[in-house]
């Protein structure tokens, strides 16, 4: 079952965006390897998707913040049959930095940065050998928005942005697709499970996980490198990119700006 499309790995598959990716990829005929910490959620998703779509579904209970559990998943991804990886597991709306421990801040980095980096690397090694594969990294519009109360989170998503876009440059001449998906607010357990209000943003700003994932898959099929489903006009992104290019050019002046002269 699912032999033609191969194996899709989805991290954070037990709820929200990850569970929706799992359902959509099963419907497209992928076998699945679903990773998260909650065994009950993964077991019922496995039951539902294997029955509905007649694909093989494997579950791995792993806390990706823990090096040894991350290593096990990494070894599984590196073992060769993965054709599609969705790096979706993420967390981190902790509150103000002075009110949380350094360990809590570091956990955000371990999940959103280290796990995503190691799993991307493992998948790309396999894709390079096969000369094919799809890597989807779930970032956030918060990558562009410093946030008091979400310092490590928005910083981690800025990492996901630059890491993924740099990989796109490295693999530009290969038939390997790398997509950065940047959700705005999505109605999932993301806020409530971390003790945040479900109304961090105005209610009309939220999409459902289904809307987000379906749009992201349209973007993927269209060959987009960066997909921002809630952004009405792609010109908004193009303007940001143009400003970034201008900024880089401006920093190569070789002179100290006059405002810093004594
Ligand atoms: N919701 C939003 O508004 C929004 C906006 C922008 C970006 N995003 C991003 O979208 C992604 C998915 O979030 P979501 O909205 O779908 O939230 P969610 O429903 O809370 O899903 C988060 C998933 O990550 C898993 N996870 C959390 N910590 C983990 C760990 N240590 N090890 C392994 N798995 C872990 C959770 O499963 P277990 O608890 O079972 O481990 C769950 O399956 C995240 O990267 C998030 O940053 C969300």
TrEMBL record:
Belongs to the short-chain dehydrogenases/reductases (SDR) family. It comes from the Bacteria. This is SDR family oxidoreductase. Keywords: Oxidoreductase. The keyword Oxidoreductase applies. PROSITE patterns: ADH_SHORT. Pfam families: adh_short. SUPFAM superfamilies: NAD(P)-binding Rossmann-fold domains (SSF51735). It is found in: Endoplasmic reticulum. The keyword Magnesium does not apply. One of its GO terms (molecular function) is oxidoreductase activity.
